[in-house]
TrEMBL record:
It comes from the Eukaryota. Residues 229-367 form the NB-ARC domain. InterPro entries: AB_hydrolase_fold, NB-ARC, NLR-like, P-loop_NTPase, TPR-like_helical_dom_sf, TPR_rpt. The keyword Glycoprotein does not apply. This is NB-ARC domain-containing protein. SMART domains: TPR. Keywords: TPR repeat.
Amino acid sequence: MSQSYPSQAATTMCSRGTVKTTGLNIWVSGGHNHNGPEVDVVAVQGLGAHPYYTWVGRQTPVEEVKPTHRHRLNYFRRREKNAQADGLPHVAQTASGAEEVMWLRDLLPDLIPDARIMTYSYESDWRRADVKTSLRKCGEQLLNVLHQNRSTEKEGRRPLVFIGHSLGGLIIKTALVLADHEAHAVGTEKESFRVDFSLQGIPVVKKFVARNAETTRLTQALLPTSTDQMRRKVFIVHGLGGIGKTQLSVEFTRKYQGSYSAVFWIDGSSKERLRRSIADLASRLPQHQLSEGSRNYSQNGSANADEVVEDVLKWLSQTSNDQWLLIFDNVDREFSVPSRDPEAFDVKEYFPTADQGSILITSRLASLWQLGTDIKLEPVNALQGQSILENSLGRSVEELVNLLQGLPLAINQAGSYLRNTNTSVHEYIELYDQTWERLMRMQHRSMLREDADRSILTTWTLSFNSLRSQSEDAANLLMLWAFLHNQDLWYELLRPALDLEIADKMPSWFARCAGDKLDFKECIGLLLEYSFIDAKLESSSFSMHTVLHHWCFHAFEEDKATMSWLAVVIVASAVPSMTVLHYSLIQRRLLPHCDQVYLMLQRHSQEAFKNREYLLSLSGACHKLGNLYSDQGKMKEAEDMFLRALAGYEKAWGPEHTSTLGTVNNLGLLYSDQGKIKEAEDMYLRALAGYEKAWGPEHTSTLGTVNNLGLLYKDQGKIKEAEDMYLRALAGYEKAWGPEHTSTLDTVNNLGLLYKDQGKIKEAEDIFLRALAGREKAWGPEHTSTLGTVNNLGILYSDQGKMKEAEDMFLRALAGYEKAWGPEHTSTLNIVNNLGNLYSDQGKMKEAEDMYLRALAGKEKAWGPEHTSTLDTVNNLGILYEDQGKMKEAEDMYLRALAGREKAWGPEHTSTLETVNNLGLLYKDQGKMKEAKDMYLRALAGYEKAWGPEHTSTLDTVNNLGLLYKDQGKIKEAEDMYLRALAGYEKAWGPEHTSTLHTVNNLGLLYSDQGKIKEAEDMYLRALAGYEKAWGPEHTSTLDTVNNLGLLYSDQGKMKEAEDMFLRVLAGKEKAWGPKHTSTLHTVNNLGILYKDQGKMKEAEDMYLRALAGYEKAWGPEHTSTLGTINNLGLLYKDQGKIKEAEDMYLRALAGREKAWGPEHKQALDTRYNLGRLYKARSMFGNAVQLFELVVQGYTKLLGPEHGETLEALNQLENCEVD
């Protein structure tokens, strides 16, 4: 008995808003009695007609219609229902109030209740020049859409009524003539060749999840049409096993079987099964159209099978028998001449000879696309995958669908296994990662018998065996791939391994594949042919599905040790040195493969290192992979790799072998980067002792470790020990290599950095210039090593305030690196970052931000967003935004840097603590004193633990705590912090070092605030003398102390001396920074304060207005420095009696400070206090009291109830209340 399946096409109703201008529009579905519609009505519009308004008339308004006829009452009820469904008003009316009536939808159903009512539209606007159609074409298109919407046997027998409007009548006539002449599917069929549809041989598909795009491709290519029925149509669905090729074909066959006179499913999995499938069809063919012997073949097998196959193919080739569909399923065996597989066949030999009918082929062989139109089936999307899982499991789990990456077979079988065994999804995912093979075997055993040959374990075996019979090399490459990452394989990944000393120990197949790109491409071509892999568009890279990747790893036990060894060596040999162009991008591309072999080594390390033949090469490979991880900022993985390398070398060579010591030295470098100072020192000392014993104290390898110890001691603040190491290394290199050798110059350069940090500026400059001259002679002026020294000179000049010289050095280094490495190389980006620092110091905020953002974008691309070098620039952006008063942006940058550094280095690493310290500075500037103190104390505790209480980084935080306590009015605590910092700096750097002088200057500020004028002046003069000696009289740090002396003299009433100081500062900063630099403007502002105190109101106002204009241009109108000058202008106008102007200034300053800092910040409270005093002077006591109350509360919370400023504000409040 034939079966019919409901059409899906009649489920979506059309509306006025969704009507299509071409094709079939369904207005009424019919079938209210649940048996489906009894008749189809199709209306065809005329020439130039509208697809909707052709069938619309005008009805008088609702209130004027008399319900005298039942169908009119039904009409209005239905109109309201349809309008609601369409999202339209209840009554569609014209401007005059008349109602639109679409009579096909609104009136006809009352006359024909169980009719499916449709309209057919076509391009008929004859006024358009681009319309090219004909009656025949319109008739054919009408037949096609009816064919698709009347595809089942039941639909084909349903009566069909046409309504034609104008030219529509001629289109209907043309369609009927074509149907009559060509036996198309509008109820007229060539019954003599019809074979009832049968599910015999068709695989069971319980619940199919729609793949609409792919199904549409099939219908467009395979459904019969009047114009090409005499042409054979061949369509190939190919792709990875388990991707859903058969399921898609089954669904297409069952849905559209009514469109064909006969549908035959043929098993193409082997030649024998193919022949048997075709021969078995004979019994289903109409009587008297085939010999009785052939028809009875399946019952008694008496006839020759080849003859029966030939008879069936002849029947399919008979004239007028052109409406059949053949499906060749699972044509997966590669056919070749001579054939390596006796069950392989050329599918073309089994095509009927006549040029008619439709053929659908499913295959894993991509080469079959040459037979016709094709589609490569891809994994399903997330929604489709969830639907598949819901069908098999009863619920959807996104995590499981993502794990199986859209492979329908894997998703379906996982869902069935979960349901059958009551396994949780979390448990399944754990088992999948840890015991994949055992899980798949259990899953295989739990399957129904008819599905067992299509399980994950078995589905790819046939294709792999066929591949291996064709090419052992390609099969081995596929197995090797299981030990690498599945998403990115390219030829250049394999090739470097053949340059190793152990290349002769590598398998011969690998030597062929990696040694010749054509051989590699041949292997890749076969893997593509069998749909094992995919080619990535517009690249030479290839990928493999993750489930197949797991299968490849577990399916074969042979050569696993060789494959795992080979994978580690391949990835390690591809790691580039830092001299390779774009090395960081290559490293990032290698990182997934590195992670893959890292995971493999974690799980199978004993087996990997057990074979002594592989031991040394694996140790060397682990060493290189450790370097890659270290460069990428993945310190835990780097340490693991170095320790594996170390263990391997110790086992192979012993603990004192020089190769062993090389890894020991690198572990020292790693621990140093991690801030594990004790461990780093232990490694360096072990390496040093070993090298001295093996090579002697003056060997260059020994000196390399000596140099590294110098670097470590420098970072620890052990300046004397660092200098001793550098000088020893320098003397040794000069003796071994000569004074101009590049290794000698490297140590010279390091000495320069040490002297720079010590404040020995002259010595540092001399050393850098020696290194520069030597490198220019050895390498040339554009070599990257030369440019490294140029960069260091730039940093030195920047610290000296020689901004022009610094910029020249940085720009030279930048141009050189861009030429050598390219604009995106990480060394180039480091110079870009340094230029950002320079521009920030110069107050060129726009230029600084541009540099930082360029460096950030480049580092994110090269290293990734979480790499420590990326985070360095993020931290610098935070500093810049804080200087600009962009507190929210600054905090975001600091918090991102902090989170990244905590993840990369840990919460106690010194780089992490640097950002903690910066957050403390930010919170202090925001007036968040509690949060600032917490940050400083965390940083201090961390530095003391990492570096010790006397390290200079520890002392920096001690100094910052002093600043915080000073702002809080905790004078004793502030003085203690400053004195501790001063004593530490004097011990570490000496009394004249600039860091020592910074604390001396801060003590001067503290003593000035305490009214200890003599002590303050002594501190300032000491700092000034030191700065003039270290930096010169015009350095900006020198000028900052001159400025502080000016403030001190001003407070003492020494106005002439104060003015002299300020004018000296102003002249110096204008020369160093320019007249519009913000540091220059600070001095302009201070001069304004001085002139105001001297009663020089005009001069004071001029200074303030100059400072204000400059700040607004540099920082913007809402920056806190801008607001400080606005507040000062308010004070000036108040003293001048310009009360309105003063109030305006105070209110503007208050609004800005509250927005920038919050209402409880000290500066906001100061402005509120000034405004309160203004209102009090104007006898506006109510306003003044409100302000003073807020100020007292704020000062009490911020400074404490006994602080002088709190008591003064309280006094003002009490006076107002008395008044």
